[in-house]
Amino acid sequence: MGVMKAITGAEAAAEAMRQINPDVVVAYPITPQTPIVEQFAKFVADGVVDTEMVPVESEHSAMSATVGAEAAGARAMSATSSQGLALMWEIVAATPGLRLPVVMSLVNRTLSAPLNIHCDHSDVMGITTLGWIQIFSENAQEVYENLLLAVRVAEDPRIQLPAMVNQDGFITSHAVEPVEIFEDDAVRSYVGVRSMERALLDLRHIETIGAMVLPDYLLEAKRAQEEAMSHVFEVYAEAGRELTAITGHAYPFFETYKTEDADAVIVVLNSAAGTAKVAVDAMRARGKKVGVLKPILFRPFPYAAVRDVLKNVPVVGVLDRSMDFGAYAPVYSEIRNVLYDMDKRPATQSYIYGLGGRDIMSTEVESVFDELLSGTVDPEHQRYVGLRG
Amino acid sequence: MSAKKNWQDLELGVILPPATSVGYKTGGWRVFRPVWDPSQCIHCMICVNYCPDMAIPIEKSEEGAVGKGGRLYKGTVRKETNFDYCKGCGICATECPSKCLTMIREEEAEQASCKL
Predict the structure, then answer these.
(1) Strand partners, A348
(2) Nearest by CB: A224 against B4, B7, B16
(3) Which helix (H) or strand (E) holds A369?
(4) Domain A3-247 is of which CATH architecture?
(5) pTM of the prediction?
(6) pLDDT per residue over A322-361, tens digit each?
(7) Is A301 helix (H, G, I), strand (E, B) or coil?
Protein backbone atom coordinates (compact mmCIF):
# COMPACT_ATOMS: atom_id res chain seq x y z
CA MET A 1 0.00 0.00 0.00
CA GLY A 2 1.19 3.47 -0.84
CA VAL A 3 0.51 6.89 0.57
CA MET A 4 -1.81 9.32 -1.20
CA LYS A 5 -0.24 12.72 -1.78
CA ALA A 6 -1.75 15.81 -3.42
CA ILE A 7 1.05 16.74 -5.83
CA THR A 8 1.63 17.98 -9.38
CA GLY A 9 2.97 15.95 -12.30
CA ALA A 10 6.32 17.68 -11.83
CA GLU A 11 6.39 16.76 -8.15
CA ALA A 12 5.38 13.21 -9.05
CA ALA A 13 8.47 13.04 -11.30
CA ALA A 14 10.60 14.39 -8.44
CA GLU A 15 9.10 11.79 -6.06
CA ALA A 16 10.07 9.04 -8.50
CA MET A 17 13.59 10.48 -8.70
CA ARG A 18 13.78 10.62 -4.89
CA GLN A 19 13.03 6.90 -4.71
CA ILE A 20 15.29 6.05 -7.67
CA ASN A 21 18.04 7.96 -5.81
CA PRO A 22 20.25 8.56 -8.89
CA ASP A 23 23.99 9.07 -8.38
CA VAL A 24 23.99 12.20 -10.53
CA VAL A 25 21.30 14.65 -11.69
CA VAL A 26 22.25 17.40 -14.12
CA ALA A 27 19.60 19.79 -15.40
CA TYR A 28 18.98 23.37 -16.34
CA PRO A 29 15.72 25.11 -15.47
CA ILE A 30 13.19 25.66 -18.23
CA THR A 31 9.44 26.22 -18.03
CA PRO A 32 7.45 24.02 -17.49
CA GLN A 33 10.07 21.47 -16.40
CA THR A 34 11.58 23.70 -13.67
CA PRO A 35 9.49 22.40 -10.72
CA ILE A 36 10.92 18.89 -11.24
CA VAL A 37 14.52 19.90 -10.59
CA GLU A 38 13.40 22.54 -8.08
CA GLN A 39 11.69 19.89 -5.97
CA PHE A 40 14.54 17.45 -6.48
CA ALA A 41 17.07 20.12 -5.42
CA LYS A 42 15.15 20.34 -2.13
CA PHE A 43 15.55 16.59 -1.66
CA VAL A 44 19.29 16.97 -2.28
CA ALA A 45 19.54 19.93 0.12
CA ASP A 46 17.55 18.06 2.78
CA GLY A 47 19.83 15.04 2.43
CA VAL A 48 17.03 12.60 1.63
CA VAL A 49 18.90 11.42 -1.49
CA ASP A 50 22.59 10.66 -2.09
CA THR A 51 22.60 12.44 -5.43
CA GLU A 52 25.35 14.71 -6.72
CA MET A 53 23.38 17.54 -8.35
CA VAL A 54 25.37 19.54 -10.86
CA PRO A 55 24.25 23.07 -11.79
CA VAL A 56 25.32 23.85 -15.35
CA GLU A 57 25.04 26.81 -17.70
CA SER A 58 22.87 25.29 -20.45
CA GLU A 59 20.96 22.20 -21.52
CA HIS A 60 23.78 21.24 -23.90
CA SER A 61 26.03 21.01 -20.86
CA ALA A 62 23.30 19.31 -18.83
CA MET A 63 22.99 16.39 -21.23
CA SER A 64 26.75 16.30 -21.82
CA ALA A 65 27.39 15.95 -18.08
CA THR A 66 24.56 13.42 -17.72
CA VAL A 67 26.07 11.29 -20.49
CA GLY A 68 29.55 11.66 -18.99
CA ALA A 69 28.32 10.53 -15.58
CA GLU A 70 26.41 7.62 -17.10
CA ALA A 71 29.52 6.55 -19.05
CA ALA A 72 31.55 6.72 -15.85
CA GLY A 73 29.17 4.16 -14.35
CA ALA A 74 26.71 6.39 -12.48
CA ARG A 75 22.93 6.28 -12.69
CA ALA A 76 22.33 9.75 -14.12
CA MET A 77 19.06 11.57 -14.80
CA SER A 78 17.94 14.86 -16.26
CA ALA A 79 14.77 16.72 -17.20
CA THR A 80 13.90 19.34 -19.79
CA SER A 81 11.27 20.87 -22.09
CA SER A 82 11.00 22.29 -25.59
CA GLN A 83 13.87 24.74 -26.28
CA GLY A 84 15.96 22.96 -23.66
CA LEU A 85 15.58 19.69 -25.54
CA ALA A 86 16.41 21.51 -28.75
CA LEU A 87 19.64 22.85 -27.23
CA MET A 88 20.67 19.40 -25.94
CA TRP A 89 19.71 17.73 -29.26
CA GLU A 90 23.31 16.96 -30.24
CA ILE A 91 23.97 14.91 -27.11
CA VAL A 92 20.44 13.47 -27.02
CA ALA A 93 21.23 12.04 -30.46
CA ALA A 94 24.55 10.56 -29.28
CA THR A 95 23.21 8.89 -26.11
CA PRO A 96 21.49 5.85 -27.70
CA GLY A 97 24.48 5.11 -29.95
CA LEU A 98 26.75 5.16 -26.90
CA ARG A 99 24.27 2.69 -25.37
CA LEU A 100 23.96 4.68 -22.14
CA PRO A 101 20.69 4.14 -20.20
CA VAL A 102 20.03 7.75 -19.20
CA VAL A 103 16.46 8.34 -18.00
CA MET A 104 15.01 11.80 -18.56
CA SER A 105 11.70 13.54 -17.94
CA LEU A 106 10.39 15.56 -20.85
CA VAL A 107 7.64 18.02 -19.95
CA ASN A 108 6.09 18.59 -23.36
CA ARG A 109 6.01 22.21 -24.50
CA THR A 110 5.71 23.92 -27.87
CA LEU A 111 8.90 24.56 -29.78
CA SER A 112 9.36 28.21 -30.80
CA ALA A 113 8.40 30.11 -33.04
CA PRO A 114 6.03 31.72 -32.29
CA LEU A 115 7.35 31.60 -28.74
CA ASN A 116 4.95 29.80 -26.42
CA ILE A 117 5.50 28.12 -23.06
CA HIS A 118 2.43 25.88 -23.12
CA CYS A 119 1.84 22.27 -24.02
CA ASP A 120 2.08 20.52 -27.30
CA HIS A 121 4.17 17.64 -28.59
CA SER A 122 6.34 19.45 -31.12
CA ASP A 123 9.38 18.99 -28.85
CA VAL A 124 9.25 15.19 -28.53
CA MET A 125 8.02 14.52 -32.06
CA GLY A 126 11.19 16.10 -33.43
CA ILE A 127 13.37 13.49 -31.72
CA THR A 128 11.48 10.21 -32.06
CA THR A 129 13.92 9.06 -34.77
CA LEU A 130 16.95 9.35 -32.46
CA GLY A 131 16.66 6.00 -30.69
CA TRP A 132 15.37 6.85 -27.21
CA ILE A 133 12.66 4.72 -25.65
CA GLN A 134 9.62 7.05 -25.52
CA ILE A 135 6.95 6.59 -22.86
CA PHE A 136 3.88 8.85 -22.56
CA SER A 137 1.91 9.60 -19.39
CA GLU A 138 -1.71 10.71 -19.12
CA ASN A 139 -1.53 12.03 -15.55
CA ALA A 140 0.75 12.51 -12.53
CA GLN A 141 0.26 8.93 -11.32
CA GLU A 142 1.46 7.58 -14.67
CA VAL A 143 4.42 9.99 -14.67
CA TYR A 144 5.56 8.58 -11.34
CA GLU A 145 5.17 4.93 -12.26
CA ASN A 146 6.50 5.30 -15.82
CA LEU A 147 9.76 6.77 -14.47
CA LEU A 148 10.29 3.77 -12.19
CA LEU A 149 9.55 1.44 -15.10
CA ALA A 150 11.82 3.42 -17.44
CA VAL A 151 14.87 2.91 -15.21
CA ARG A 152 14.41 -0.85 -15.22
CA VAL A 153 13.82 -1.06 -18.96
CA ALA A 154 16.68 1.29 -19.92
CA GLU A 155 19.26 -0.38 -17.67
CA ASP A 156 18.35 -3.97 -18.55
CA PRO A 157 21.42 -5.73 -20.02
CA ARG A 158 19.39 -6.61 -23.13
CA ILE A 159 18.53 -2.93 -23.72
CA GLN A 160 21.12 -0.36 -22.53
CA LEU A 161 19.28 2.48 -24.25
CA PRO A 162 18.11 5.84 -22.88
CA ALA A 163 14.45 6.42 -22.04
CA MET A 164 12.33 9.56 -22.00
CA VAL A 165 9.16 9.85 -19.95
CA ASN A 166 6.75 12.45 -21.36
CA GLN A 167 4.08 14.46 -19.57
CA ASP A 168 2.02 17.41 -20.79
CA GLY A 169 3.40 20.81 -19.80
CA PHE A 170 1.24 22.69 -17.25
CA ILE A 171 -1.80 20.43 -17.85
CA THR A 172 -0.03 17.57 -16.05
CA SER A 173 3.15 19.18 -14.73
CA HIS A 174 1.45 21.97 -12.77
CA ALA A 175 -1.97 20.54 -11.88
CA VAL A 176 -2.34 19.04 -8.39
CA GLU A 177 -3.80 15.55 -8.34
CA PRO A 178 -3.98 12.75 -5.80
CA VAL A 179 -0.99 10.49 -6.48
CA GLU A 180 -0.29 7.22 -4.73
CA ILE A 181 3.39 7.03 -3.77
CA PHE A 182 4.44 3.50 -2.98
CA GLU A 183 6.75 2.44 -0.15
CA ASP A 184 10.34 3.61 -0.48
CA ASP A 185 11.82 0.21 0.36
CA ALA A 186 9.69 -1.65 -2.17
CA VAL A 187 10.42 0.84 -4.94
CA ARG A 188 14.14 1.04 -4.13
CA SER A 189 14.50 -2.70 -4.26
CA TYR A 190 12.55 -2.66 -7.56
CA VAL A 191 14.84 -0.14 -9.27
CA GLY A 192 17.96 -1.60 -7.63
CA VAL A 193 21.45 -0.25 -8.27
CA ARG A 194 22.94 0.28 -11.70
CA SER A 195 25.35 -2.47 -12.75
CA MET A 196 28.98 -1.34 -13.00
CA GLU A 197 29.68 -3.75 -15.84
CA ARG A 198 30.24 -0.96 -18.38
CA ALA A 199 31.78 1.72 -16.15
CA LEU A 200 34.46 3.93 -17.66
CA LEU A 201 35.89 4.55 -14.18
CA ASP A 202 36.47 0.82 -13.65
CA LEU A 203 40.21 0.94 -14.30
CA ARG A 204 40.46 -2.84 -14.56
CA HIS A 205 38.75 -2.58 -17.95
CA ILE A 206 40.24 0.32 -19.88
CA GLU A 207 38.08 1.16 -22.86
CA THR A 208 37.45 3.85 -25.43
CA ILE A 209 33.83 5.09 -25.46
CA GLY A 210 32.63 7.24 -28.34
CA ALA A 211 35.44 6.40 -30.75
CA MET A 212 35.08 7.30 -34.42
CA VAL A 213 33.52 4.63 -36.63
CA LEU A 214 34.06 4.80 -40.39
CA PRO A 215 31.76 3.51 -43.17
CA ASP A 216 32.97 -0.06 -42.59
CA TYR A 217 31.30 -0.31 -39.14
CA LEU A 218 28.59 2.34 -38.73
CA LEU A 219 25.89 0.20 -40.35
CA GLU A 220 26.69 -2.74 -38.05
CA ALA A 221 26.60 -0.47 -34.96
CA LYS A 222 23.16 0.85 -35.90
CA ARG A 223 21.85 -2.66 -36.64
CA ALA A 224 22.94 -3.70 -33.13
CA GLN A 225 21.14 -0.65 -31.70
CA GLU A 226 17.94 -1.64 -33.50
CA GLU A 227 18.26 -5.15 -32.06
CA ALA A 228 18.26 -3.67 -28.54
CA MET A 229 15.19 -1.59 -29.37
CA SER A 230 13.37 -4.72 -30.57
CA HIS A 231 13.87 -6.32 -27.13
CA VAL A 232 12.15 -3.41 -25.35
CA PHE A 233 8.70 -5.00 -25.67
CA GLU A 234 9.65 -8.15 -23.73
CA VAL A 235 11.69 -6.26 -21.13
CA TYR A 236 8.96 -3.62 -20.68
CA ALA A 237 6.42 -6.38 -20.14
CA GLU A 238 8.66 -8.18 -17.62
CA ALA A 239 9.56 -5.02 -15.71
CA GLY A 240 5.89 -4.03 -15.82
CA ARG A 241 4.81 -7.33 -14.25
CA GLU A 242 7.30 -6.83 -11.40
CA LEU A 243 6.07 -3.27 -10.84
CA THR A 244 2.48 -4.53 -10.80
CA ALA A 245 3.41 -6.57 -7.73
CA ILE A 246 4.05 -3.27 -5.92
CA THR A 247 1.42 -0.98 -7.44
CA GLY A 248 -1.39 -3.29 -8.50
CA HIS A 249 -1.51 -1.39 -11.81
CA ALA A 250 -1.00 -2.92 -15.25
CA TYR A 251 1.65 -1.62 -17.69
CA PRO A 252 0.37 -2.24 -21.22
CA PHE A 253 2.06 -0.80 -24.36
CA PHE A 254 -1.12 1.23 -24.85
CA GLU A 255 -4.44 1.67 -23.09
CA THR A 256 -7.77 0.83 -24.71
CA TYR A 257 -10.99 2.33 -23.42
CA LYS A 258 -14.24 0.75 -24.60
CA THR A 259 -12.81 -0.20 -27.99
CA GLU A 260 -14.19 -3.79 -28.14
CA ASP A 261 -17.52 -2.97 -29.83
CA ALA A 262 -16.64 0.54 -31.02
CA ASP A 263 -17.89 1.94 -34.32
CA ALA A 264 -15.29 4.72 -34.07
CA VAL A 265 -12.01 4.97 -32.14
CA ILE A 266 -9.89 8.03 -31.38
CA VAL A 267 -6.14 7.61 -30.91
CA VAL A 268 -4.62 10.29 -28.68
CA LEU A 269 -1.54 10.68 -26.45
CA ASN A 270 -1.05 11.98 -22.91
CA SER A 271 -3.53 14.14 -20.95
CA ALA A 272 -6.05 14.62 -23.78
CA ALA A 273 -6.73 10.86 -23.57
CA GLY A 274 -8.45 11.58 -20.25
CA THR A 275 -10.65 14.19 -21.95
CA ALA A 276 -11.39 11.72 -24.74
CA LYS A 277 -12.47 9.05 -22.24
CA VAL A 278 -14.95 11.51 -20.72
CA ALA A 279 -16.25 12.15 -24.25
CA VAL A 280 -16.57 8.38 -24.82
CA ASP A 281 -18.78 8.07 -21.72
CA ALA A 282 -20.96 10.98 -22.90
CA MET A 283 -21.25 9.45 -26.39
CA ARG A 284 -22.16 6.04 -24.99
CA ALA A 285 -24.82 7.69 -22.80
CA ARG A 286 -26.25 8.90 -26.15
CA GLY A 287 -26.11 5.35 -27.48
CA LYS A 288 -23.02 5.86 -29.67
CA LYS A 289 -20.46 3.06 -29.48
CA VAL A 290 -17.06 4.74 -29.47
CA GLY A 291 -13.69 4.18 -27.77
CA VAL A 292 -10.18 5.52 -27.21
CA LEU A 293 -6.73 4.06 -27.82
CA LYS A 294 -3.97 5.82 -25.86
CA PRO A 295 -0.41 4.91 -26.92
CA ILE A 296 1.94 4.74 -23.91
CA LEU A 297 5.07 3.10 -25.36
CA PHE A 298 5.63 5.21 -28.48
CA ARG A 299 9.20 4.06 -29.24
CA PRO A 300 9.42 1.25 -29.98
CA PHE A 301 5.92 1.44 -31.46
CA PRO A 302 3.82 -1.72 -30.95
CA TYR A 303 2.45 -1.88 -34.53
CA ALA A 304 1.12 -5.43 -34.46
CA ALA A 305 -0.66 -5.07 -31.12
CA VAL A 306 -2.32 -1.79 -32.15
CA ARG A 307 -3.39 -3.41 -35.45
CA ASP A 308 -5.11 -6.15 -33.43
CA VAL A 309 -7.25 -3.57 -31.64
CA LEU A 310 -8.11 -1.46 -34.68
CA LYS A 311 -8.70 -4.26 -37.21
CA ASN A 312 -12.47 -4.41 -36.74
CA VAL A 313 -13.10 -0.71 -36.16
CA PRO A 314 -14.88 0.96 -39.12
CA VAL A 315 -13.33 4.40 -38.64
CA VAL A 316 -10.30 5.70 -36.70
CA GLY A 317 -9.61 9.33 -35.89
CA VAL A 318 -6.12 10.35 -34.77
CA LEU A 319 -5.63 13.48 -32.66
CA ASP A 320 -2.14 14.93 -32.99
CA ARG A 321 -0.80 17.64 -30.68
CA SER A 322 1.93 18.58 -33.18
CA MET A 323 2.26 18.91 -36.93
CA ASP A 324 4.67 17.55 -39.52
CA PHE A 325 4.38 20.30 -42.12
CA GLY A 326 3.81 18.95 -45.59
CA ALA A 327 3.44 15.42 -44.25
CA TYR A 328 1.05 13.29 -42.20
CA ALA A 329 1.05 14.25 -38.52
CA PRO A 330 3.33 12.07 -36.35
CA VAL A 331 0.77 9.87 -34.53
CA TYR A 332 -1.49 9.71 -37.59
CA SER A 333 1.48 8.55 -39.62
CA GLU A 334 2.05 5.64 -37.21
CA ILE A 335 -1.61 4.63 -37.30
CA ARG A 336 -1.65 4.68 -41.11
CA ASN A 337 1.41 2.41 -40.99
CA VAL A 338 -0.36 0.11 -38.54
CA LEU A 339 -3.29 -0.33 -40.92
CA TYR A 340 -1.37 -0.90 -44.17
CA ASP A 341 -0.97 -4.68 -43.86
CA MET A 342 -4.70 -5.41 -43.69
CA ASP A 343 -7.02 -6.56 -46.45
CA LYS A 344 -9.90 -4.44 -45.20
CA ARG A 345 -8.70 -1.26 -43.57
CA PRO A 346 -10.62 1.15 -41.34
CA ALA A 347 -11.27 4.64 -42.73
CA THR A 348 -9.02 7.22 -41.07
CA GLN A 349 -9.03 10.93 -40.35
CA SER A 350 -6.21 13.11 -39.02
CA TYR A 351 -6.94 15.95 -36.61
CA ILE A 352 -4.58 18.59 -35.21
CA TYR A 353 -5.55 19.87 -31.75
CA GLY A 354 -4.21 21.65 -28.71
CA LEU A 355 -1.18 23.39 -30.21
CA GLY A 356 0.51 25.90 -27.92
CA GLY A 357 -1.59 24.77 -24.96
CA ARG A 358 -4.99 25.35 -26.59
CA ASP A 359 -7.54 23.55 -24.41
CA ILE A 360 -9.52 20.72 -25.91
CA MET A 361 -13.00 20.25 -24.43
CA SER A 362 -14.76 16.91 -24.13
CA THR A 363 -17.56 18.43 -26.26
CA GLU A 364 -15.02 19.05 -29.03
CA VAL A 365 -13.93 15.41 -28.85
CA GLU A 366 -17.61 14.43 -29.05
CA SER A 367 -17.91 16.52 -32.24
CA VAL A 368 -14.94 14.62 -33.65
CA PHE A 369 -16.64 11.32 -32.80
CA ASP A 370 -19.87 12.53 -34.47
CA GLU A 371 -17.91 13.48 -37.59
CA LEU A 372 -16.16 10.07 -37.68
CA LEU A 373 -19.49 8.23 -37.24
CA SER A 374 -21.08 10.31 -40.03
CA GLY A 375 -18.51 8.83 -42.42
CA THR A 376 -17.36 12.18 -43.84
CA VAL A 377 -13.67 11.44 -43.53
CA ASP A 378 -10.92 12.56 -45.91
CA PRO A 379 -7.62 10.82 -45.17
CA GLU A 380 -5.73 13.14 -47.54
CA HIS A 381 -6.56 16.30 -45.61
CA GLN A 382 -5.96 16.83 -41.92
CA ARG A 383 -8.57 18.76 -39.97
CA TYR A 384 -8.12 21.14 -37.06
CA VAL A 385 -10.00 21.06 -33.77
CA GLY A 386 -11.06 24.51 -32.58
CA LEU A 387 -9.40 26.43 -35.43
CA ARG A 388 -10.87 29.90 -36.10
CA GLY A 389 -11.66 30.70 -39.73
CA MET B 1 43.81 -5.99 -40.22
CA SER B 2 41.77 -8.86 -38.89
CA ALA B 3 38.45 -9.82 -40.50
CA LYS B 4 35.67 -7.34 -39.89
CA LYS B 5 33.15 -8.22 -37.19
CA ASN B 6 29.47 -8.91 -37.82
CA TRP B 7 26.92 -6.70 -36.11
CA GLN B 8 26.10 -9.42 -33.57
CA ASP B 9 29.71 -9.45 -32.37
CA LEU B 10 30.23 -5.72 -31.79
CA GLU B 11 30.92 -4.43 -28.30
CA LEU B 12 27.95 -2.51 -26.89
CA GLY B 13 28.11 1.07 -28.09
CA VAL B 14 31.18 0.21 -30.24
CA ILE B 15 33.40 0.38 -27.18
CA LEU B 16 36.96 -0.34 -28.17
CA PRO B 17 40.05 -1.65 -26.42
CA PRO B 18 42.88 0.91 -26.22
CA ALA B 19 45.43 1.40 -29.06
CA THR B 20 43.17 0.17 -31.86
CA SER B 21 44.53 2.83 -34.24
CA VAL B 22 47.68 0.67 -34.57
CA GLY B 23 45.69 -1.66 -36.81
CA TYR B 24 44.34 1.20 -38.89
CA LYS B 25 47.00 2.09 -41.47
CA THR B 26 46.66 5.58 -42.87
CA GLY B 27 49.72 5.70 -45.14
CA GLY B 28 47.50 5.32 -48.19
CA TRP B 29 46.19 8.86 -47.62
CA ARG B 30 49.63 10.30 -48.51
CA VAL B 31 50.06 12.74 -51.42
CA PHE B 32 53.60 13.85 -50.48
CA ARG B 33 56.35 11.64 -49.10
CA PRO B 34 59.14 12.85 -46.78
CA VAL B 35 62.49 11.70 -48.15
CA TRP B 36 65.03 11.49 -45.34
CA ASP B 37 68.73 12.10 -46.00
CA PRO B 38 70.53 10.45 -43.06
CA SER B 39 73.83 12.09 -44.08
CA GLN B 40 72.37 15.52 -43.14
CA CYS B 41 70.47 14.38 -39.99
CA ILE B 42 71.57 15.60 -36.55
CA HIS B 43 69.17 13.28 -34.67
CA CYS B 44 67.79 16.24 -32.72
CA MET B 45 64.34 14.57 -32.31
CA ILE B 46 62.47 17.71 -33.41
CA CYS B 47 60.73 15.84 -36.26
CA VAL B 48 59.90 12.99 -33.87
CA ASN B 49 58.19 15.33 -31.41
CA TYR B 50 56.33 17.29 -34.08
CA CYS B 51 55.01 14.28 -36.02
CA PRO B 52 51.23 14.21 -35.37
CA ASP B 53 51.02 10.50 -36.23
CA MET B 54 54.00 9.23 -34.20
CA ALA B 55 55.20 7.83 -37.52
CA ILE B 56 58.93 8.41 -36.96
CA PRO B 57 60.47 5.48 -35.07
CA ILE B 58 63.41 5.99 -32.73
CA GLU B 59 65.75 3.66 -30.92
CA LYS B 60 68.50 3.73 -28.34
CA SER B 61 71.73 2.96 -30.12
CA GLU B 62 75.08 2.22 -28.42
CA GLU B 63 76.97 1.99 -31.74
CA GLY B 64 75.26 5.21 -32.94
CA ALA B 65 74.38 6.46 -36.43
CA VAL B 66 76.50 8.48 -38.86
CA GLY B 67 74.86 11.83 -39.60
CA LYS B 68 75.65 15.37 -40.66
CA GLY B 69 79.35 16.06 -41.22
CA GLY B 70 80.17 12.36 -40.95
CA ARG B 71 79.75 12.63 -37.19
CA LEU B 72 78.66 9.63 -35.10
CA TYR B 73 75.43 10.40 -33.20
CA LYS B 74 75.05 8.15 -30.13
CA GLY B 75 72.11 7.61 -27.76
CA THR B 76 68.63 8.03 -29.17
CA VAL B 77 68.56 8.10 -32.98
CA ARG B 78 65.72 8.38 -35.48
CA LYS B 79 65.05 5.70 -38.10
CA GLU B 80 63.31 5.79 -41.48
CA THR B 81 59.72 7.11 -41.40
CA ASN B 82 57.06 4.44 -40.91
CA PHE B 83 55.11 4.75 -44.16
CA ASP B 84 52.24 2.60 -42.83
CA TYR B 85 51.13 5.63 -40.81
CA CYS B 86 52.83 8.73 -42.33
CA LYS B 87 50.11 10.86 -43.95
CA GLY B 88 52.65 13.10 -45.72
CA CYS B 89 51.67 16.30 -43.91
CA GLY B 90 55.19 17.74 -44.25
CA ILE B 91 55.48 19.07 -40.71
CA CYS B 92 58.73 17.15 -40.20
CA ALA B 93 60.29 18.76 -43.29
CA THR B 94 59.13 22.23 -42.21
CA GLU B 95 60.52 21.88 -38.69
CA CYS B 96 63.80 20.10 -39.50
CA PRO B 97 66.65 22.52 -38.58
CA SER B 98 69.21 20.81 -40.81
CA LYS B 99 66.95 20.43 -43.88
CA CYS B 100 67.48 16.69 -44.16
CA LEU B 101 63.82 16.02 -45.13
CA THR B 102 62.44 16.78 -48.61
CA MET B 103 58.81 16.41 -49.61
CA ILE B 104 58.27 14.87 -53.05
CA ARG B 105 55.02 13.80 -54.69
CA GLU B 106 54.17 10.19 -53.94
CA GLU B 107 53.98 9.25 -57.66
CA GLU B 108 57.52 10.62 -58.19
CA ALA B 109 58.73 8.42 -55.34
CA GLU B 110 57.00 5.42 -56.94
CA GLN B 111 58.50 6.18 -60.38
CA ALA B 112 61.95 6.52 -58.84
CA SER B 113 61.62 3.13 -57.17
CA CYS B 114 60.43 1.60 -60.51
CA LYS B 115 63.56 2.88 -62.31
CA LEU B 116 65.72 1.27 -59.68
Answers:
(1) A316
(2) B7
(3) helix A362-374
(4) 3-Layer(aba) Sandwich (3.40)
(5) 0.87
(6) 999 999 999 999 999 999 999 999 999 999 999 999 999 9
(7) coil
